[in-house]
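Handoff note, outgoing to incoming analyst
You'll be picking up this chain. Sequence as last confirmed:
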Amino acid sequence: MEFPQETASAPRPITVKQLVYRLRDVVGIAVGTQWVVGELSNVKYHTSGHIYFTLKEQGAEIFCAFFKNAAARCPLRLQEGMKVHVLGNATVYPDRGQLQLVIKEVRAAGMGDLQARFLELKEKLQREGLFDAERKKAIPAFPRSIGIVTSPTGAVIQDMRHVLERRAPWVKAYLLPVRVQGSGAEREIAAAIRAWSHAPHNGLPPVDVLIVGRGGGSIEDLWNFNEEIVARAIHECTVPVISAVGHDTDFTIADFVADLRAPTPTAAAELATPDGPEWLRKLGRMEQALHASARHSLLHARLKLDVYLRGRLLDADSLLAPYAQRLDGMEESLLASSALRIQQNSLLINQLEHKLQLSHPRHLNRERAQQLSALQSRLLHAATVRMTAFSSSLALLQARLEAHSPEQTLSRGYALVENEERQLIRKTDQVHAGEKLKVRVFNGHFFVTADKHQ
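Most recent structure output, in case you need it:
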């Protein structure tokens, strides 16, 4: 590295690292170890065991690092808005050139300013009855349209849209964009809530439920939802309001005033809409039950009419006519009501069914069909091989049997001789002179008379 030539008016320049390390030395010597009082913000518990937070007051703040070994000895659970005394070494973090305190000890110092303001407003509104359960409006089970008051940028609105498209694609969602943090953002939020209360007279489309919220952040980031103007706008809103501010552990004044609190904006979208696929299955079961009930009612009515007619000695036509007419009317009324119910739900069913069919795994059916065809071919081939083996074994056994049969022996010129008692003659001493014998050959038999032994 080449440096400009040093002169009296232009001293030799130093590197950034040299500057940062000089600042660290100066801060360490000038400040050293110091007790500091302030309010906690942006508290983050790292997986390594370290704790990072910002210590602040009105108009000033400093980053703090509470490393694992020191943090393990701290009996406090550090939280947003807590007022504390911290003992730390002032230094400069070279990698970012950032002034910070390396904390050695933390002690509770009472309630922070923001937390005090939060509790003061909460008690005030609670005394006025803004949190009372009887004042809260019911969230509709099947909204046709939903209003959303949040920032138009970021992941929150995208996540909510994905949930709405998955659960209830027929529901219309309207966004009224506002700033959700910073000076004056609370006035934008309150104005947007009041605007939905006056819809459609002000040009906005009417909605059945309103979601007001934002993503997570520090207590300062969420503070606009702790302002009284937002709380009163939610309380005066004519549309049911779901508050969805931050994460599950974050609570704001808006959460207490709203008709329903959701732990996250995504959860708010789920609470505001029915589960479309599940309702599709329910409607299918209801339709089947309705048809079964109609058939049962008609059959029961016909049976009652038949029993009544059989017990009366009157003209069948005169008795049947009014009851048949009444039965026809009941049937038409029942079918009309069931058709109307089915027609009312058919559009919803068709829309949901179309949505589900777009992601239906038809390729799995084709794969199963191919597997079934392959298994059938293998089964047929195995059966053919087995039958061929059985046929070969049967033919071999038949050949062996025929080789040992008497008919085969006789066909080679041999004969069987029997006496009159049908005993086979095997020796000459079994035959007596003059005895009549039966000689059996291959193609028949004949009789002979014994002469004498030889």
